[in-house]
Amino acid sequence: MSRNKATILITDDEKSIRNSLREILEYEDYRVLESEDGETALQLLEGEQVDLLLLDVKMKGMDGIEVLEEIRERGVELPVILVSGHGTIELAVEATKKGAYDFIEKPPDLNRLLVSIRNALLNSRLRHENRQMRSRLHGVQPIIGESLEMDRIRQVIDKVAPSHSRVLITGENGTGKELVALWIHEKSPRNSEPFVDVNCAAIPSELLESELFGHEKGAFTGADRQRTGKFEQADGGTLFLDEVGDMSLEAQAKVLRALQENEIRRVGGSESISVDVRVLAATNKDLSAEIEKGEFREDLYHRLNVIPIHVPPLRERNEDIPLLIEAFLEQLSSNDILFEGRSLSDDAVEELQKHPWPGNVRELQNAVERLVLLSSNQEVTREDVQQYVGQEQETGELLSGLASRNRTFQAFKEEAEKIFLQQKLRENDWNISRTAEEIDIQRSHIYNKMKKYDIKK
Q: Class for domain 148-312, per CATH?
């Protein structure tokens, strides 16, 4: 909304109701318009910029439901709150199905009404901003944050995107490295060509070469047809090598050759195929340390690390948390009616800013969804955050529950082992190799324990 004051149109055939609502809303610093019937309301919507409609259900002429239907048929996008002195569950359900934001009974509870109006206007603003961003960037989610770190990343993206230079994006899991890669592609001259991503950690090393370069029919057991690889699929566009630090040394050598010669050879093939691909790579590892250990090729590192971009963890930019929360709430409410009108109090947001967020933005997103679902209030409170997000309390309750559920020490150990393994798998996006390395056990042991405890993604 471009104006400082939001404009609310009150439509009710009782003048006393309109006067009462006008007095309340103007006191809350809203601009107020009035109409006594549906026809007048529709006329005002054509000539005025209205941000929200308060609409009575029972009126002479067109009733509120009919006005709502007409608004939606005309394609007018604004939140509508229906008010009725004859409210029923059936009527509320019908109103919601036809696109009403909320349904409030007369006489309206003042606090409930004002909260609904604020949430509806916020929801509308976020939807509008989201649509604008998506239309500009072909559906790519915006990089959210006003911290110096995020401003710097956006500036670097603007500078490097028009070039063909390779970029190495580093950062912890869940910080948004793939989103940075998508923005580089979308702002580049290649944005009309494919963006192809491959998670190097999620593909077994023996299959990664075929995934990247493709294979000919009969190249190995099970290769019953020819297959093009990711390099060919990304020809003319961008190839994103996610978790490149988990690539085997053999695959690294072949990727290096492809970057040097701008051509690839399918597994089992003899023909060289030219490819025009911009390569972006990302990793959560310290590749300099991996080079010292002999786990990553130094020459490939220098080929990939032409432009370095580091995405900081959320704990180093917690001033961005309120904006991220707003965006997550908008996303949730746009996909599921259960989340519409829900919000977090200022105290709740402050409490979330104290959290270390080891899982970064991804963990925060999950926490917001959990809070909104489990909170008994329309507005999530500080107490809700402490109950459902506080690590120390969760840990204490978990240990207490484990001890009370299991009568033997062996049973206690096994359940604790299952919980530990599930948590580590989730933190590593269910990548077995990375999890095995992090917790220092063999990959085969993880498979055995997953089978033993019936652990599934």
A: alpha beta
